[in-house]
Design goal:
8-stranded mixed β-sheet, 4-stranded antiparallel β-sheet, Arylsulfatase, C-terminal domain, globular, Alkaline Phosphatase, subunit A, 14 strands, alpha/beta, 13 helices, 478 residues
Length: 478
């Protein structure tokens, strides 16, 4: 008996040890992108607005990171949205404007022929959604798409070219409480602190509450705060009107109430995430598609607004929360552009960010890496070869100002920024403007005369970048 036991123990010493069980890879986070429409960079309390009450977005900023030098990839919605989704610049995508019901180009008494309107993104274009879906994510899109010619109605998704054709499995097409959805039926006034019911956010919340067996990507694209500027929140409108100058347009008070409505809907998403128990495993990112509308958004001290390539048309709020990874209440001064979103989200999902070829992943910054000077010195390019506004162009101001709450004429232009230096090129006249953004954030002093060599080098770099992207250029009329 003793001999048998000895032989058994000896056998155990020579048998190979069982293979160690491989550690399970860490669960990739859920991702929620909250995209506002035409929200200016200073339109939130946490980014400096004195009167807008945005407690939910302030809560998001306080529990995450606020980027203080973030830019849209374009000064207009569709072009910017294409870059956010693909990580490719509007110039490279040849998607620099908004699509219409029909193909064609701008017609007007202008000296230049603009490129044709963009129509649909080619269905084979890789997007964040298609790439993370192939890696096991459940994907959903809710709200404003605006990346195809309108079908059936304004902003209608065209069959075969809507979000379901670009990697989104679950899609929710709904105007929610935005004035687009009112039609002829104007809603009854909403009194006190209440807000109108928003079915778009409700659908997004219902998606969050589902029993997800896989990580998910939810891209919630709000219609707020795009014009028309009308809010049924009568008491909120009156509260803001009383705080504006006596000669201020009522549009500004309605806009302020719309900003607060947007904030409320963001709060509903955050609350649903908390109640579902998924908040700890979810990265939430909030931004806007371009700078604020000139009639209602106080973009100062930055010059300009939506539609032009001055800083007021490009700067946007950018908030990121990721519990356990992003330090609560932190800020980052890295210079970001919309194309960086796709690169970063692919990186977060443990995928190669290379398809987002014009973007750069800021995941290291989210994980606490110190600010990298190369982000501040990077080169960014913007291209807008169109005229705006399309109607009433002749009545618009010729000079783009700061906080003048007036629409100005935007003519075909392109811009390049390297570090603190920014060159704006005007195609009609060939004229350049050169600004030092650190010393002159309002872009008031054109330094072309005293910095000729620098301007020439930046102009050469700008046109090389446009050529490398095969950008479509406006051309003089014969």
């Amino acid at each position: 008996m003793k001999s048998a036991l000895c032989r058994f123990l000896l056998l155990l010493t020579v048998l190979p040890a069982p293979p160690a069980r491989a550690a399970a890879p860490p669960r990739r986070p859920n991702i929620i992108v909250l995209l506002a429409d035409d929200l200016g960079w200073r339109d939130l309390a946490c980014t400096g607005h004195e009167h807008h009450r945005t407690p939910n977005l302030d809560r998001l900023a306080a529990s995450g990171m606020r980027f203080t030098d973030a830019h849209a990839a374009a000064p207009i919605c569709s072009a910017s949205r294409a870059a956010l989704l693909t990580g490719r610049s509007p110039a490279r995508l040849q998607y620099e404007f908004v699509p219409k019901f029909d193909a064609g180009r701008q017609q007007g008494p202008w000296p230049m022929i603009t490129p044709d309107f963009p129509t649909e993104l080619p269905p084979a274009t890789p997007t964040v959604a298609s790439l993370v879906k192939s890696a096991g994510y459940t994907t959903a899109f809710a709200g404003k798409w605006h990346l195809n010619r309108h079908q059936g109605h304004y902003l209608g998704w065209r069959s075969g070219h809507g979000p379901e054709s670009f990697g989104f499995e679950h899609v929710f097409d709904d105007f929610g409480a935005h004035p687009y959805g009112y039609g002829k039926n104007q809603p009854a006034p909403v009194r006190g602190d209440a807000f109108p019911e928003d079915t778009l956010t409700t659908k997004a919340v219902e998606f969050i509450r589902r029993d997800h067996q896989r990580p998910f990507l939810l891209w919630l694209s709000f219609y707020h705060v795009h014009d028309p500027f009308h809010s049924p929140c009568a008491d909120r409108v009156a509260w803001h009107q009383a705080r504006l100058p006596k000669d201020a347009s009522p549009k500004r008070a309605h806009y302020a109430a719309m900003v607060e409505t947007l904030d409320h809907e963001v709060g509903r998403v955050l609350d649903a995430l908390e109640a579902s128990g998924k908040a700890a495993d979810t990265l939430v990112l909030f931004t806007s598609d371009n700078g604020g509308h000139p009639e209602v958004s106080a973009n100062g001290p930055l010059r300009g607004s939506k539609w032009n390539l001055y800083q007021g048309g490009l700067r946007v709020p950018w908030l990121v929360r990721w519990p356990g990874t992003v330090k609560a209440g932190s800020t980052c001064g890295d210079t970001l552009v919309g194309s960086d979103l796709a690169a970063t989200l692919l990186d977060v999902a443990a995928l190669d960010p290379a398809p987002a070829r014009d973007g750069r992943s800021f995941l290291p910054r989210l994980k606490g890496a110190p600010e990298d000077p190369s982000w501040r010195e990077r080169t960014l390019l913007w291209h807008f070869p169109f005229y705006q506004p399309e109607t009433g162009f002749g009545k618009a101001r010729q000079i783009t100002g700061v906080n003048d709450f007036a629409i100005s004429q935007t003519r075909p232009q392109a811009a390049l920024r390297t570090g603190d230096w920014k060159l704006v090129h005007h195609f009609e006249t060939g004229r350049d403007e050169l600004f030092n953004l650190a010393r002159d954030p309002s872009e008031a002093a054109n330094l072309l005369a005293t910095e000729k060599e620098r301007a020439a080098a930046l102009r050469e770099q700008l046109f090389k970048g446009l050529s490398d992207a095969a950008a479509r250029l406006p051309r003089p009329k014969p």
